[in-house]
Specification:
449 residues, mainly alpha, two-stranded antiparallel ribbon, 2 strands, globular
Length: 449
């Protein structure tokens, strides 16, 4: 019985359960009358949807955050975003450290799963560094945003808005307080706000391990070459996606959504709209006015998402890079998959393919359900499904009008996107089951292409 219980209580299951518990608590709190302006509280399903979106750091909302919730309701949402972004295990472990408690081996395994680390060595130190770096970056973001918000709104409201949006952006959550589902469309020409928010989104999407490496690199004044292969891959892919996305959005929308802007603001809006879909869910352009070609580019950016071990979702930049390298290797008729003087293991390719396949199937299923339940068009349903699964939070306006079936479907997609890929990667990195008996079957061939 003890062995069975040990097998059932795995780090991946504990991680998933911790998110469920947090969502449940958040849902109950958001049904309280004190959390909404009308004094009625949210109905349970809407409260569950909002809590799921906050804990899974997505940003899709069925009610407007800025006009529906009181200060207490917004504070609950902000707390769910912060804990959800850091990870319940990371947050609780740090509290245990502050209280002077020793972190057990099992708790270290939970941390390893939560931080997507490949080693237990130094995992507690990494968790502590993650929280410190998070607080530092969010504080800097708050100070910069307050330069704009405080003169505009006054000290109390301006500082509150700065804190809320700094935390939301760094955790790639996509929640905002500007009201009427407007996001940053009212500040599309404000360089300070857009660049600060884009910087927070970018840093949050790099992954804590990469942030630690960059910090060490700067502190010890080392060269780019001293970065790990993972960090180089993340930075190169992130940069390429931002540059490529900015160029395509500018090209497609220059005579449409960007037509009324001056040259500088055109590039600013295109840049922000290229950074945000990677998992943040904030938008400075009215998405309903964009061309279908632009929306398709945004869908691709959402699908790829951020990087491993970050606050973002999607299939991850490293998985996308691995698939590209695999295709290039096939075209070259090479048996090895090389990157920056290193040969990538075939197991990595298998895991990447499995992750992309499962993610694509889940998005397809959600799209089909939304097409049936909401009677909407294909592009809108696909956009919403990708946004939910990749924990982005962008919407073409479908989410606030979702039926109960649609809400439940999108909730499950957000949860799967936040927890599912992590659980899948963990499962795929386990040793083969002993049932194979070490048997190697004769090689067989099937036709491809």
């Amino acid at each position: 019985m003890g062995t069975l219980k040990k097998n059932l209580i795995t780090p991946s299951r504990t991680l998933a359960f911790s998110f469920i518990v947090l969502i449940f608590i958040g849902s109950l709190l958001l049904t309280l009358p004190q959390t909404t302006v009308d004094g009625k509280g949210l109905r349970l399903l809407d409260a569950m949807f909002t809590a799921t979106s906050a804990v899974c750091i997505t940003g899709l909302v069925v009610v407007d955050t800025g006009t529906t919730f009181t200060g207490l309701g917004q504070l609950i949402i902000l707390t769910l975003i912060q804990i959800g972004g850091l990870g319940v295990m990371t947050f609780t472990t740090f509290i245990a450290i502050l209280l002077g408690k020793k972190v057990s081996y099992r708790e270290r395994m939970y941390l390893q799963e939560a931080l997507n680390s490949d080693s237990l060595q130094g995992i507690v130190k990494l968790a502590r560094a993650v929280l410190i770096v998070t607080i530092l970056i969010e504080t800097v973001g708050t100070l910069i945003l307050s330069v704009r918000f405080v003169p505009e709104m006054g000290w109390e409201k301006g500082l509150y808005y700065s804190v809320f949006h700094s935390i939301s952006a760094f955790n790639n959550a996509g929640f905002d307080l500007f009201g009427n589902f407007s996001s940053l469309t009212g500040h599309v020409d404000d360089g300070m706000i857009n660049l600060t928010m884009a910087g927070l989104i970018f840093l949050g999407g790099l992954g804590f391990a990469v942030l630690m490496e960059i910090y060490t690199l700067a502190r010890e004044r080392k060269s780019w070459r001293s970065l790990s292969l993972h960090a180089k891959c993340v930075l190169l892919m992130s940069g390429a996606l931002i540059v490529g996305g900015t160029g395509l959005i500018f090209l497609f929308e220059n005579g449409n959504a960007l037509a009324s802007f001056d040259w500088g603001n055109k590039w600013l809006a295109a840049f922000f709209q290229s950074v945000a879909p990677r998992s943040a869910g904030l938008n400075s352009l009215n998405l309903s006015e964009l061309y279908p070609a632009t929306l398709l580019v945004i869908i691709v950016l959402m699908y790829i998402g951020a990087s491993p071990g970050s606050t973002g979702g999607g299939i991850k930049t490293t998985v996308f890079a691995t698939l590209i390298l695999s295709v290039v290797s096939t075209f070259k008729r090479s048996e090895e998959i090389n990157f920056m003087g290193r040969c990538l293991p075939r197991s990595l390719i298998k895991k990447s393919i499995a992750l992309v396949f499962v993610s694509s199937i889940l998005i397809l299923i959600v799209t089909i359900i939304l097409l049936f339940s909401e009677k909407t068009d294909l592009l809108t349903a696909l956009f919403e499904a990708t946004s939910a699964f990749s924990t982005v939070g962008l919407s073409l306006g479908l989410t606030p009008a979702l039926s109960d079936v649609g809400k439940i479907t999108v909730m499950l997609a957000m949860f799967a996107g936040r927890v599912g890929p992590l659980t899948l990667v963990f499962a795929l990195t386990q040793d083969q089951l002993n049932g194979s008996g070490g048997i190697r079957y004769p090689e067989g061939k099937i036709m491809i292409g």
